[in-house]
Amino acid sequence: MSVELDFTVEKLGDCRIPSPIKLSRSSHDFMADYVDDDECVLFDIVAKTDGLKREFHPNEVLQRAGPREKIYFNPSKVHAGVVTCGGLCPGLNDVIRAIVMCLWYHYGVRRISGIRFGLRGLLPAYQLPAMDLSPDVVSEIHHHGGTLLGSSRGGGERISEVVDEIERMNLNMLFVIGGDGSQKGALAISKEAEARGYTLAVVGIPKTIDNDLSYIERSFGFDTAVAAAVRVVSGAHVEAHDAVNGVGIVKLMGRESGFIAAHTALAINDVNFVLIPEVPFDLQGNNGLLAHLKRRLVERNHAVIVVAEGAGQDHLAAAQERDASGNIRMGDIGVLIRDAAADYFKKENMEVNVKYIDPSYIIRSSAADPGDSLYCARLGTNAVHAAMSGKTRVLVSLVNNHFVHVPIKMATASRNSVDPESSLWRDVVNATGQPALMKN
Question: Regarding the domain delimited by 10-219+367-411, which CATH topology (the fold level of the hierarchy) does it fall under?
Answer without folding.
Answer: Rossmann fold (3.40.50)
